[in-house]
Amino acid sequence: MAKPSSRRKKATSAAEINSKSLSNSANEDISVEENPTTATITVSAVEVEELTDEEQSDRLLLERKVERAFFEAGKALAELRDRRLYRSTHSTFEDYCKDRFGFERRHPYRLIEAAGVVDNLIKMCPNWTQNQIEDDPATVHSDQLQILPTSEGQVRPMTKLEPQQQQEVWLKAVKLAGGKVPTGKIVKDVVQRIMERTQVPNTYQVGEVCQILTKDNPELRGKRGCWGIVARVNDFSCTVKSWDGEYTIALQHLKSYDYLPAECQQMREICDRVNRVYSSELEESVQKFLESLGKLNRAYLTGLEEKVLSLLEAEIAN
Questions:
Q1: Cβ 227 vs Cβ 210: under 8 Å
Q2: How many CB atoms lie within 10 A of CB 304?
Q3: 3 state SS of 56
Q4: For the chain, where are the E strands, in sequence order?
Q5: Neighbours of 263 (CB within 10 A)
Q6: What was the pLDDT predicted at 193?
Q7: d(CA 80, CA 78)
Q8: What secondary structure, in 3-state letters, does 218-236 show?
């Protein structure tokens, strides 16, 4: 009986020896891998090629063109709209911009408004910043250039401010950005601070289009999803003109659609037209159609809606 026991001891002993050997080998490998002092790092020096004076001038010129791209687009769009240079192919400016440039309805107006803000900001610097950069960029040093917006998104929060406030906001935003072009969020934060500083409880403007919110207000039952146009601005409420009359509504029950001026004008025209027709005693089905127009979430009528509304207007005119 002792012999089998002896074999097991020998086998166990050999296994232990092999296990210890493997363990030591593994430990040795780990210690080598975990010891960074034994590693050799080779660093290759990369020579940075300096730009020539001509290349530096070209870079400056191209950078300014990129920065001013949205500004130039806004200026061009304004002229196309004001001179109605689209009239030979399109009946409306919006349709022209969509077909020609792929712009959605609000985008060209945003670019036009943004260009107006940039025009105002340019007035803060000497005249040479407007022309000399393009005429002879080599004579202008980078630290002399006025810091101007490089995208429409940086300008959008300022479009409803007065010109002096726009300049104040931009200067503060540039300072907060460490002397660089600020992001749209930084600009928006500065605008919010100025609004709080002026302590104006009601920031809505006459003519602005708002959505009526009915939550927790039984008096607005049936107006859910309807739009209204601000007719009078009160301290903590607005009197809005809807498709079926006027209502005085608290600020917490209003939400601006943030429409552009041209879109607000379109909504005022739609409101007047629907209101005139709705005041007439028409069939219930017709009234339902007019109700649906009173809940539009866009600043225009479709072709079919325009035809039906025009037909109703002609009907009550007879």
A1: yes
A2: 8
A3: helix
A4: 209-212, 227-233, 237-242, 245-250, 254-256
A5: 19
A6: 82
A7: 5
A8: HHHCCCCCCEEEEEEECCC
Radius of gyration of the chain (CA): 34
Residues 72/76/81/83 CA torsion (nearest 10 deg):
140
> Is this model's pTM higher than 0.70 or not?
no
Q: Which is nearest to 157 in space by CA: 124, 193, 126?
A: 193
Interstrand relation of 237-242 and 245-250 (parallel, antiparallel or unpaired) = antiparallel
The token pair at 147 is: 């810091």
Predicted confidence (pLDDT) per residue in 170-181, tens digit: 999 999 999 889
Bridge partners for 228 per DSSP: 210
Euclidean distance between CA atoms 108 and 113, whole angstroms: 9
Amino acid (1-letter code) at residue 63: E
Residue located via tokens 């070209």 = 58
Question: In Å, how far from its chain's centre is CA 94?
Answer: 19
Locate tokens 């289009």: which residue? Answer: 209
- Cβ proximity of 180 and 149 under 8 Å: no
Find, among 292, 298, 311, 281, the residue nearest to 243 by Cα: 292
What type of residue sits at position 301?
Answer: L
Tokens of 58: 């070209």
